[in-house]
UniProtKB/TrEMBL annotation:
<keyword id="KW-0418">Kinase</keyword>
<keyword id="KW-0808">Transferase</keyword>
<dbReference type="InterPro" id="IPR007862">
    <property type="entry name" value="Adenylate_kinase_lid-dom"/>
</dbReference>
<keyword id="KW-0547">Nucleotide-binding</keyword>
<dbReference type="Pfam" id="PF05191">
    <property type="entry name" value="ADK_lid"/>
</dbReference>
<dbReference type="Pfam" id="PF00406">
    <property type="entry name" value="ADK"/>
</dbReference>
<dbReference type="InterPro" id="IPR036193">
    <property type="entry name" value="ADK_active_lid_dom_sf"/>
</dbReference>
<feature type="domain" description="Adenylate kinase active site lid">
    <location>
        <begin position="38"/>
        <end position="73"/>
    </location>
</feature>
<dbReference type="InterPro" id="IPR000850">
    <property type="entry name" value="Adenylat/UMP-CMP_kin"/>
</dbReference>
<dbReference type="GO" id="GO:0005524">
    <property type="term" value="F:ATP binding"/>
</dbReference>
<comment type="similarity">
    <text>Belongs to the adenylate kinase family.</text>
</comment>
<dbReference type="InterPro" id="IPR027417">
    <property type="entry name" value="P-loop_NTPase"/>
</dbReference>
<protein>
    <submittedName>
        <fullName>KAD4 kinase</fullName>
    </submittedName>
</protein>
<dbReference type="GO" id="GO:0004017">
    <property type="term" value="F:AMP kinase activity"/>
</dbReference>
Amino acid sequence: GFPRTLGQAEALDGICELDLVISLHVPFETLKDRLSARWVHPASGRVYNMDFNPPHVHGVDDLTGEPLVQREDDKPEAVAARLRKYKDAAKPVIELYKSRGILHSFSGTETNKIWPYVHTLLSSKIPPILSAEEN
């Protein structure tokens, strides 16, 4: 997400005024497991997740048959360190938007369970886009 740091939030303030910020809370272990299961095809950038979007053949790209690799920062120990660092950096950002009364937080582990709540919030804040026939 963005902004991830207070400096980024302050820079964003300089170019626009936010009236809504969404914070998604996903348990640490869920994030660690998902990121650690991510493998990529270096040449194309195609991303696979061994849990919910695996390649047809384990360890190889579906289109080229070339080997997949796990990025160094996706290995379990690196993911844990990244998540701790993110939590520390994001805390003041969350507090800033909470103090402004524009922070809306949602918790869960599955997109299809969180999304309806986020969609309802966004639908209440953003007017629908009408097609040419409706105008």
